[in-house]
Batch of 4 targets.
Target 1
Amino acid sequence: MQSGAGLPGGRPAGGSRRDFLVHSACVAAAGSANAAAPTPPEPAPPLVFVSNVLADYLQLLMFRLRRDTFAPFDPPGFAQAPSLDELVAAPEAVASAGLTRYDQLHGFIATAFAGLPAKRVTSPRPRILCYSDNPPSLEAVQAVVAAGAPFFPAFETYWRQSVQPLVQAQIAGWREQDAAFHPLRKVIELQRMPLRAPRLEVVAMPFHPSGSGNYSPPAIFSSLFERPNLPWFLGHEASHLIWSEALGRPLSARPEAARVTALATANRVDVEETMCLFMQAEVSKRCGLSKPDLRMSTKLEAGPQKRLMIALEDGWDDYLADPRRWPDLQAYVLAKASAVLGQG
C-alpha cells in the first residue's frame, strides 16, 4: 500500500485518523536514467481511470475517514451506524466491478469475500481481501453494509454536489500526467521487470486512507492529492504489483530472499515497502513533479529502515549504469538489504 501523506511530492487532501500500513513517502537519487538494459523493457499496460460513487460511500461508511476538503456527510442517524476498524478491500472491489446499485452489494460481497477472515485468496482468482492484520468476518462486513443502506440516496446527492468535481479534477490531472510522462513505463523500466496485466485500473477514491492495490482485475486506488501526482502513487502501488505472485514475481521466488527475509524480520523492516517508498519518489522526480534532490532518508527515523533507504539512494547511479550487475530491482534491493541488515 502507499501513501504520500504529509510528505514532499504530493499529499492526499485532508488527514487520516488511522494508520494505513506504513505509507510514508520516499525518494531516490535522480541518477543517470539513460543507461540501457541488456534487453528492451516490457511494454507498459494502458491505464484506465475510474471513479465510483457506490465504492466511495462504502469507504466512508466502513472507515469514517473525514476530509477537510469538502463538507462532512452527516445525515441524522449516520454517526450511529456501525463501522469497521479493519481495512477490508470491499470498496476497492466494488469500484473495479463497476457496481452502481446498493442491492448488488450483498451478493457480490458474499461471493468475492467468502474467504474472510483470510487476508487474501488465490482462487477462484487472486485477490486481497483485507489490508489489516486481523480481518473481520464476512458477517461483520455484511452487517455494516446492511446498516448503511438507508443513507446511500442522500450520499449520492452529497457526492455529486461536493465530491464529484474534485474527483473529476484529480482524474483530469492524472490523464494529463500519463500522456505527458508515461509514469508506468518509467516504473517498469526502473524495475527491469514486467507488470503482467492487460491494463491497469487507476481509481480515485476520496475517502481512501491513502492508497492500495489489488490483483483481479489489476488495479490501484488512491485518495485525492492537493495537487495530482500520478507518478508518486503509481510508483509505489505498481511496484507492489510487480513484486506480487499474481502479476509479477514475488521476492520470495529468489533463492537469496530467505536470508534477507530473516534479517528483515529480526530488524523489523519491511524490505518491499521500503522499496516502494523509494520508487514512488524516484518516479515522481523523473517526471519533474518532485524536487530532484529529494532524499526520503532524511524523513525517516534513525534505524534499520533509514539505513536501508540511504543504501538504496547512494547506490542508485550504480544500479542505473550497470544492468548486467543488477538485472532487476529485486537483485539490487536484496544486495543492499543483505549488506545493511546483516550488520545488525
Target 2
Amino acid sequence: MDDQAYVFAAARADLWDSWPRLPRRVRELVGHYWHVREDDLASRDTFSAMARAYAASSDGLYRLPEDVAPREAQYLVVAHAQNPLKLAKELVREAEELFYQARSPLPVAGPGQWCFGGRELSVVTIPDSEKDAQVRPLPLRTAAYRPTTAVSRKQVLRLARRQAAADPDRYGWKPGLMDRFFDKLIDADDHPVTRLALPAGQIRVLNAPTGVGKSVLMDAIAPLLAQQGQGPIAVVVGQIHDSLRGAERIQADNDLVRQAADQLAAATAGQDLRIVPLVSPYRRTEQAERALTQGRQTVSTGWPTAVTCPRG
C-alpha cells in the first residue's frame, strides 16, 4: 500500500500500467493534487516519514496498526467512513485554496550591490529604479481536455515560410530544413509521418540525429499549439541557458511573423503569445557560476522550462 501511495505522491503514474484506463475525472483529480503538492514528497524517504508521522497523529484519517512500531509500519488502517474519492476531492479542494492564498507577490532584492556564488563571489548591482519591485506568480490556465492534439507538416512549413519571407537572411534556411525533416520522418512501422499526433497522457518520442531539426520543430510547435488555444505549452530543456534562449527565440519568431504578416496577425488577434522562462530555486549555484564565468551580471535560478501560452 505504501508503494501505491508513493506512486501518486511522486507523480509517477508511468509506473502503473492501469493509469491510462482510469476514468478521466479521477486522473484530473490526481492532476489537481500534483499541481499543489509539495515537491519534497517525490522523495521516497520524505514521503514515508511524513506518512508515518501523519498516521501517528490523533487527527489523521488513517491509523497505524496498534501492534506495529511507527518505523516498521507497512500499511495503515482506515479511520474514516467516507467515500475515498469524495474525501480526496474535498482534501484537494482545501489544498488548492491554501496553495493559491500563499501565491502572493514575492519580495526581491532591493537597490544596491549583492554578492552570491559561495567561495567565488559574483556581484550584481541593482539600480534605484527597482526599489519595491516584486515578482508576481505566473497564472497558467489549463486548456480544455482533448484526447489528441495534432500538428501537421503543412502548418509547420507555412509558419517557416512566413518567417523566411519576413527575414530571408535570418530564416531563409528554415523551410528547407523542415521540409527535409518531414521527408525523412517515419513512424515505428516505417510509414511516412505528415501529422504529429500527441495523445493525452502519453509520451511521443522523436528520435533523430543532432542537427536535423528537432529543436527547430519544437520552437514551431509550441506557438502553433498555443495560438490554436491548446495551451499552455511547456517546453522542458536541460539547462537554464537553454530555457532563456529558447524563450527569447520563440518570442522573436512570433514577433517577426506578426510584424511582417498581416494575415496571420488578423487570424490570431485574440491569441497574442506570452513567452516566459520558468526556473525553480534549486539551481542558483549553476547559474551564478555561469554568470561569473561569462562576466555577466544577470542571474536566473533553477530547473528550466519555457512556457508558451495565450494571453488573457
Target 3
Amino acid sequence: MSVLTDLPIGSTRRRLEYLAGAIDTLAGGVGGGTGTPTPEPVNYLKNSHFYGDFAISGSNTDAMDVSFRAQNVNPNSLHLASHIAAPSMPAWGVEGVVSDKPARMELLPNNDPFDRELAEQFYGPELVAQILAHRGLQITSQSKRQCVFQIFRRPALLRNERSQCNAVVNFCSTGALLSGEGGGEDEKVRVSIVRLDANFKAAATIATVTVQPLAQGTFVDFDAQLSNVDLIGPDNYFALVIDAALLENATSNVWVVSAALWFGDSQSPPTTPTTYDSDDVLALPLSTTIAPGELVDGLSFDIPLLHMPAGYHNHLVAGIAAYVPVGHSNCTDINVMIENNKIVLRDFIIGSGHGANGYTHAEVHLYYSRQPNNIRFFSMPDYVDIT
C-alpha cells in the first residue's frame, strides 16, 4: 500500500482520517496495535443502489416506474410529450429519443397487486416470486433506445494530484427464467463516462465499455468496469451513462443493481450504499382541482422557487391529466410554456380524447430534478449504437 498515492481526494478531514487509519495499521504490524483496514474509497455517485421514489410515480415505493413519450416535440414546451427525458429516482435521470413508444424504466421489486396479478397470469406465480426476490432498475427495453444517467463533478485537485477515476456497475440478468433459453446473447449493456459542455449536454465520450452475461443460468450477475479514466482538461462536469442495445424481441431482462465511481489508485470499489437528498426529485402539484371549463388556453401558474442552474427547461417537466368517468387523458396536445415567469398552458386541441371535453376535473403537475433532466446522450457528436 502506498499512503501517498492512495490518499483520498476531498476534504482535509477525510485525508486526516485516512492517515490515522494508515498509521494505526502500521502500528498493528510493528508494535502489536489493533490495526484498521484501509478505508474504502469515496463513491461520487449518489443513491448508488437505486432507492427512493420515482418523481413521476409519487410516493408508491412498491411499484415505481417512470415512462414518457417524446412525440409532439416542441423544444419550448415543458410537457412530457415534448420531452425526451424525465426525472427518475433520486439523483438519476432517464432519457430516450423521439418515438411513438414511451421509454420506461421500472424498479424491482414491483409489489403492486395489479401488476403482480398480470405477471402471474403470464409467467406463473413461481417465476414471479423469484423475480420479486431481486432488486434492480430494468435497463433493457424492446424497440426503444433509452438510458439512465447521473451527472457528477470532478473534485478539485491540488498540484500533482491525479484526476483518474474508476467505475463499476453491477447488473443482473433473468437469463433463462422467462425465455426458457440460456439468455445473454442479446443482452448487451454499456457503461460510459461522457464529458458535458457548459450547458450540461453530452459533448464527447471519455471512456466506454460494453458487456453481456455470457454465463448460463436462471439469474446471472455480471459487472461492467472502467479503470484509470483520465478526466484532465478544463471541464468539471461529467456523466455516468448506462444504456442497452436496441432490441426488437428481448428474451430476458437486465437490471442495474448498483453503481460506483471513485477517484484514486484503489482498484477495490466502494460497496457501502450511498444516500440521496429528499429534494433530488420532486413531484409538485400545481393544481388538482381544475373544474370543467377551466382547463383553457392561457391558464397560468406560478413557478415554484427551486434550484435550477441550467434553466427551467432542464429541471422541470409537466404533466396534465383530465379525468373522465372511465379513466383519464394525458392531454398530450397541450403545450406548457414559460411566459413572463409564469407557467402557461397553450395551443389546445379541442376534442374527445384530449381531455378538453367531458372531463370531471383536471390536474397539472410539475416534476423536478435537482440535476439537469437531460444530457442529449443520443445526440452526442461521437455517439454510436451498441454493436
Target 4
Amino acid sequence: MGLKIILLFLSYAFFIYAPDVYSLKYCNYIFILFLITVIPFIVQTSKNKNYFNFHLFFLLSIFFTNFAYPLFIYPFNPEYFSVFSFGFNQNIITKATALSQLAVSSYVFGVSISTNKNKKRKEILYVFSKGLEIFTINIALFFSFIFCAYVIYTAFNNSNEEVLNTQIVSVTIVFLVIAILISLLNNKHELYRSPLKALLRNKKLLATCILILLSSIWFGDRGPAIQVFFIGMYFYVTYIKKISLKTLLMLVVFGMFILTMISYTRGTNSNLRSGSLSGTVSEAYNQMTSFNTFWDYGMDLIGTNRNLFIAMELKEREGLLYGSSYFPVIFSPIPGLPYFITTSIFNNTPDELSTAYIITDYTGIKDWGMGTNSVGDIYMNFGTLGVIILFYLFGYYIHKLSVQRDIYSILAYALFFGLVIYYPRASLLDQLTLIIRAIIILYVMLRISGNPRKIIK
C-alpha cells in the first residue's frame, strides 16, 4: 500500500512538472513509472492463474490509447495514422501522457484500497425456479432473433451504416447476460462436474450467443461481438474453468486479427456484407501483410489519443464543463427523461453535451465521429482533481463488484467487463445507464416470479 501511495504522488509530480513542449526523454521517464505501477499490480491481480481479469485488459487498452503514440509513433511519424493529420497542439503531448499516468496510478490505488477493505465474502447459493430459467433463456433467444432481423434490415436498406443502434444492442445484451447469469447460478454443480456437457445441453443459450456474434461480425460492427466475447469469457473463467496464460495469449492474437479484419474491410467491397468470407479474409490478409509496424493492429485505440490532446486544449482555452456531460446519467433510468431535462436546462440534447460531440465539433468533421477519451472526458469536466478522484473510484468499485457474490453485483460487473477495452476511449460512465436499467429489469423479473431462495455458506 505504501508503494502505491508513493507512486501516486510521483505521478502527480510528473504531471505538475511536465514540460509544455514535447519531450521524448520525459515521456520515457513517465513510461518507466507506468511499468513500475502496472507490472507488479497485474502480477498480483493474476494470482491463482486468474489471467483473464478486468484490470489486465483495461490497463492494456489504456497503454494503446494513451501511451503508444507519444512513445513509439510520434517521434518517427507524427501523422502515421490519418486522424493525427487533422491537427492538434503537439506541445500538450507530454503533459497529456503524464496525466494518463496519474489516472493509471489513481485507478491502481483505488483497487488496492478496495482490496484491503475487502473481507472474505460468504458464498451465496441462489436457487431459481426452472420456469424463470427457461423464460429468461427464451426471451434472450427472442431478442437475438430481433437483433439478427434488425442487422439484416439495416444492411440491405442502409448500406452506408457501419454502427448498429446502441439501444437495440443494449437490450439484447442485457437479456443475454440475465439469462446466462440465472442459468449458471442454477446449474453451478453440474457445470463443475461436466462443463462441456452442461454447455452443449443448453442449446438455446449457445444459439443466442452465436447469433449475436455472427450477426455483428457480418455487419461489420465489432461492439456487440466484443461485449458477448468478454462477458462469455468472464462467466466461463469465473464459474467453469480458468484458462492458461498460453490460451489467453492465443485468444488475444486471434481477437486482434478478427477485429483488424473487420476494421480494414468494412466500408469496402470486400466486407462480409458485400462479398464472401474467403474474399474478406483474403483482403484483410493483404492489408495486414502490408502493415509497416505492429501498431497498425491497435489503430482504433491509438487514434483516440488525439482526443485527449484536444480535450486538454479545450479545457485550458474554454474552462471546465463542471459535469454537464454527465448530467443526463442522473435521469437515465427513465427513457426520454435525459433528453427532456437537458434540452430544458441546457438547450442541448444529451449527445450535444457529450465530450465526444464537443471534440468532433471542434475538429470540424461533422460526418466522422471522433469519439472521446476517458482521461480527457473527465479532465474537460472536472480538471486534474476530477481525474484522480474518478479513476480512484472506478478502480475501487470495479474491484468491489468483482468480489461481491450477490446477483446484482455479478450482473453489473459482467456488463462492465463487456466493454473493458472500450472504456479508455470513452467515458467511464458510458455503461452506467445500461447497468441501472439492467438491475431494474432483473429486480422486476425476480419480484414477479418470486424471489430466489438464497443459501449462504
